Amino acid sequence: MIVHKHGENVLDHYYITGIIGNPYDSKARLAINKKTGLERAIKEVSKAGIADLGDFLKKVKIVS
Asked: I need a surface site. Which of 2, 33, 35, 44 has the fewest CB within 10 A?
C-alpha cells in the first residue's frame, strides 16, 4: 500500500507508465519509484464511480 502525506501527489515519488490491467471498475498502472526504482502496481479509481464508501474501503483492504 502506498501512503503519502496530505498535499503530496503520487507523481512526486513515482513515474507512472501505461495501463497494465483493467479489472472491473478501475485501471491498474505500473509505477516506478523515482528514488529506488522499485516497481509497484497502482490502482486508479474514479471518485465519481464510488457509490458506497464502505464497500470501496473493503476492496482496498482486501488488496492491501
From this structure: 35
